[in-house]
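In this supplementary section we document a worked example of the pipeline. Step one takes a protein sequence of length 71 as its only input; no multiple sequence alignment statistics are reported here. Step two produces a three-dimensional model, which step three serialises into structure tokens for compact storage. The input and output of this example are shown verbatim.
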Amino acid sequence: MDATIADHEIHIDGYKIVRLDRNRHGGGVCIYIKSDIGYSVRSDLAKKSLEMLTIEIRKLNCKPLLISLLS
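The serialised model returned by step three reads:
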């Protein structure tokens, strides 16, 4: 994470933010997810050579949902 931009500066009420910053010169990806939705970050699915962020959402009686961002 790029410490030059704090989470509270880009916070949206009712949402959590998952970030993968590139550096202080810009770039990176982020996902906003409603606060009441459970998720886990799937670092095991990311490639180090890409700007890629993947989360897995699990809900009762549903198959897991993967959401990936690639920049």
